[in-house]
Amino acid sequence: METLEQFIAKHRKSDEKRSDFAEYLYSLMSARGIDKPSQVYLKANITKQAWSAIIAGKVSPSLNTCVKLAFALKTTNHECKYLFKKAGYTLASSSEYALIIRYCIENGIYDIYALNDYLEKYGYAPIV
After folding, report:
1. Does 11 have pLDDT greater than 80?
2. Which of 11, 46, 65, 82 is in Cβ range 3.0-4.6 Å of 61 for a Cys bridge?
């Protein structure tokens, strides 16, 4: 039988689960050695104004914005899942659209143009 301390440690929410969208985004940046937000929002093709509004919590990021951030940060599937969850989205296995995004992430395809080619091939609008 595990001890009470082991049980608590196993079931306590991690910082990853407790953080909000902006905090988690900054933790991903830190893990990759990125110290300037401009390195992320420019690569994700997001305006400085949109970035600032998202970070300040004034607006929630759109699904497209989350995809662009996940690709810009080259997230793992696990990281992408939490990033999306914090913005109120999921990449459900029942969604072909989500599976296309997950396919790219799980296979290290972080080129948004390649993702758009896959999406268009299956009849979905590209990420803009």
Report:
1. no
2. 65
